[in-house]
Amino acid sequence: MNASHETLSDLTGAPVATRGPAVAPEGLTVPGSRPSPRRKAGRGETREAVLEVTDLRVAFSREGRTVHAVNGLSYEVRAGEMLAIIGESGSGKSVSTRALMGLLPPSARVTGSARLGDTELVGMSEKAMRRLRGCDLAMVFQDPARSLNPTMRIGAQIVEAIRAHSERNGLDKKGAQARAIELLKLVRLPAPERRFHEYPHQLSGGMRQRVMIAIALAGDPKVLIADEATTALDVTTQAQIMELLVDLQERLGMAVIMISHDLGLAASYAQEVLVMYAGKAVEYAETEDLFSNVRMPYTRALLGAIPQLTTEAHSLLPVIGGQPPDLSALPQGCAFRPRCVNAQDDCAVAPTLDEHEPGHWFACWHPAESRRTPAAEAARNGSTAATGTPAATGNPLSKGGEA
Amino acid sequence: MSAVSGLLPTRSGSGFGRLGRVAGSPLLRLIVKRVVMAIPILFGVSVLTFWVLSLIPGDPARAMLGMNATDQQVEALRQQYGLDKSGPARYWDWLTGALHGDLGISMVSSQSMSSMLGARWAVTAELVVLSFIVSLGVAVPVALLAARWPGGLFDRVSMVCSMTGLAVANYVLALLLVLVFAVELGWLPAIGYVHISDGIGGNLKSMILPTLAMAIPLFCFYTRFLRGDIVDQMQGEDYVDTARAKGVGPWRVLWSHAFRNSSFGLITIVGLNIGTLVGGTVIIEQIFALPGLGQLLLQGVNTRDTVVVQDLVIIFAAIAVLANLLVDVLYAVLDPRIRYGSH
Amino acid sequence: MAVIDASSAQLESAVVAAGAKPRGRWRAWMRTWIPAGTVIFILAVCFLGPTVLPIPGATGGDVLESGQGPFSPGHLLGTDSNGNDVLSRLLSGGQASLLIGISVNVIGIVIGGTIGAVSAYVGGLFDTIVMRLLDVLIAFPSLVLTLAVAQSLGPSKRNTIFALAFFSVPAVARIARSSTLRLREMPFMQAAQLCGSPTWRILLRHVAPNVAPQLISFAALGMGIVIVTEGALSFLGLGIPAPAPSWGNMIFDGQQSMSATPLEVVWPSIALLVTVLAFNQLGENLRARWSGR
């Protein structure tokens, strides 16, 4: 339908060869995600969820005030698939994944549920958590310059990750060293034997991030969390790292949660996208669905704020007015209300995340392109803090929904 | 994409390779530069001392001989010690002498400085080294324990104690120790020094209180710094998050990651502090009657023995400069970012 | 004599202040006002006390009254071995020590701050020379040279101030210099230069207000160091001359009669400890507040 080639993928520099753009009805040029053969194969099949998060909440107490960083987040990730969690700074996206890993400071209170296979992560003891971290659940951080210990050799840092779980893998020091070099090869680091003995500052940013990935892979994780893993890299390197991640994902069958503020990345690489605002999920769908059929005003505004090549020169960028909400003083009702173009009076009651269309969840009374009158009962029944996906409704994404 | 130009193409980690890398590297150049820079500082220090002491009003020769001395006696003494020469000339005499190992002759005791120093330096050295070992040896474990549970009971108690310990002047502490352990309890001698040759037991006994008096304030200082720095690393640095995310246990994170990085800061402040540490021996040796360099300096000051004072001040300053140099070099060698240069 | 030299105290306290976690607002309030209040109290009592309070003078006591313990009539803390009222000596000694401390720090900030800031701002050969000179001075274990100087000049309040200030100036200068160097890179400084502001005005209106807080908090920490060092000098007989009291020489006197009257050494020691502790904590608080950590 659209002959234009200005897609977000173009703008982000991700390889465009295999991508085809799609257009939303209102003429917005939105990026299309590549129709992944993986996903197509999965359509209609029931895939086991590797990680199921239900109504996750995280609160911090700071100087007598409570900061509600995450307010009822629910989602699911399947093996071999990538979920992109998109949000601005302060939306709670990083905090939620750190809660999964148990990496939050002691002042944090985590409630809700997060099941990794059969294991419940919330409320787990620190000792038990440590056995999982780096093993079943791994994380890659944002800034490779600061995420590696500058006084320790690369190889030693990988070996440390391996040896931390020596009861599981049974490797001694020599074995761990050999495996570390294998991992470096796996992440396509040139000259791995030499790099093994070098220090982080002797490597470039992209290489360091590969090392971080190698460290994360050391325990054969079921779920890899990439927390803004490419934000600190230049665009070309970013593409390389993402391609590497996707490749590894296919080969190892890992689930990947990619946290980012970059919609283009999400569009290019993820199967599912979850948009967060003020600690809650506000839109959740398969990628193609979400971008071609944007419903949430917030997501729409985010997409709209991206400068397009087709935009008239010297015109004002349609930025989202206002500020993100203060998480220690969340307003009643919809958190996006003060900044929303579609806001109405009934937005004073917080909308719940519902599957308004098959496979497409969003939390809004007045989503884009269709106005629904909220049922008075629904509005009255909604509690002040909207829950995420209630357990009663079953899994967030219906199996084999069509886009 | 190897780090530094001029490297030998050997694998890091192999012994010779490492040596070769150091020899050809900017690290050596950095070390040489530091050493070279220290020399003018040493000169500056000696010149400054000479100059300041020469500004002091009064004639040392007359002061020594007293009011009743005749002018000829005073003049003779002045000539004997070269006090009649001009400042720069005296400095030159001293310098050439010092570089040959001759530091002059004490005006009061007529002994050669070198022999007096020879007898005493071991005492001061022992005091300094022991204080060092004790203060660091206790500071590191305490800081680690405090940092392991920041805000916890041990942390708060140790921080309050160390804050107090820092505020206590070391001479006050010394007197307090004497009061408690020597006067009231009688366990340890209040004054006096026992040579090692006369028995290690006695030697150590006589050194316990002086060492404590010096080491305790030092320990407080190091502990507070180290604890703060380690906690900063643990809370603020991303690589700690990475280590935790790997599943590494808390003690290992503390030691191999946070402390390893904090140790550089520790080395720096140890270096900064050495001059003051060495200067502190003056008062401690005085209180405990230890026959070391500090006591000698004080004696020289009180008897207006210019030669002694001059030489000792310069020696103390030189020790401080050299210690700083050593610390700088150590830092450069240990920190891999400096050792292997930046990419 | 202080164990820590000035610049390492600054480094250390910066790190510690960052790591400290006050729990609750009440605790935080106490943390600020207990040290500040103590300092104010000590200053008030020592400077106003000897004139305002109804206590005998610090010198000229009757030997016959010596050795009285605390709470004796007319002598709240008793008398020392010369028959002087201990409380009075404590306050007058405090006045002397504090006066010296304040003078030294003020001289240090004014002269040292100016030298450091100007040197860093002007840069070039001038700066290199000044830096080398500072290096030499700071490398000195100051007590050592101060002893020699003080002995030969003769013990007196003025000479003590002079000797201590001689070493306080380079320490402050170094801090002012590094602070100004950092400041020089900032865009607003470059903007001021581009405006055509003369150097002296830039220094006065831009550099000084930005460097001053750091220097002042350093001075608070420095108070402790100077007081202790002055105490050391007096202890060795080279600071404030007897019979005028100073905490240092009171401690020395106390040492002499330690076996007989151990309390004599305790009062000035406590006074010293509390004062230094209060100033240290105040300095750390100022530091934390003004460096935004």
Describe the model:
Chain A has 403 residues and is α/β, with parallel strands linked by helices. Among the domains of chain A are: 47-136 and 223-305, Rossmann fold (3-Layer(aba) Sandwich); 145-220, no CATH class. Chain A has helices at residues 8-12, 37-42, 93-101, 126-132, 144-147, 154-163, 166-169, 173-186, 192-195, 205-217, 235-252, 263-269, 287-292, 297-304, 376-381; strands spanning 22-23, 29-30, 49-62, 65-78, 82-86, 108-116, 119-120, 137-140, 223-227, 255-260, 272-277, 280-286, 354-357, 360-362. The two termini of chain A are 17 Å apart. Chain B is 76% helix and 0% strand. Chain B has 14 helices and no strands. Chain C has 293 residues and is mainly alpha-helical. Chain C contains ten helices and no strands. In chain C, helix 8 (199-235) runs antiparallel to helix 10 (263-290) and helix 9 (247-256) runs antiparallel to helix 10 (263-290). The two termini of chain C are 30 Å apart. Chains in contact: A-B, B-C. At the A-B interface, helix 4, helix 6 and helix 10 of A face helix 10 and helix 11 of B.
Could you give the topology of this structure?
The complex is a heterotrimer of chains A (403), B (343) and C (293).
Chain A: H1 8-12, E1 22-23, E2 29-30, H2 37-42, E3 49-62, E4 65-78, E5 82-86, H3 93-101, E6 108-116, E7 119-120, H4 126-132, E8 137-140, H5 144-147, H6 154-163, H7 166-169, H8 173-186, H9 192-195, H10 205-217, E9 223-227, H11 235-252, E10 255-260, H12 263-269, E11 272-277, E12 280-286, H13 287-292, H14 297-304, E13 354-357, E14 360-362, H15 376-381
Parallel strand pairs in A: 5-10, 5-11, 8-9, 9-10
Antiparallel strand pairs in A: 1-2, 3-4, 3-6, 6-7, 11-12, 12-14, 13-14
Chain B: H1 15-24, H2 26-55, H3 60-65, H4 71-80, H5 87-99, H6 113-148, H7 153-167, H8 170-184, H9 200-236, H10 238-245, H11 250-288, H12 293-302, H13 306-334, H14 336-339
Helix pairs in contact in B: 2-13, 6-7, 6-9, 6-11, 7-9, 8-9, 8-11, 9-11, 10-11, 11-12, 11-13, 12-13
Chain C: H1 6-19, H2 24-52, H3 86-122, H4 124-139, H5 142-153, H6 157-184, H7 187-195, H8 199-235, H9 247-256, H10 263-290
Helix pairs in contact in C: 1-8, 1-10, 2-3, 2-10, 3-4, 3-6, 3-8, 4-6, 5-6, 6-8, 8-9, 8-10, 9-10
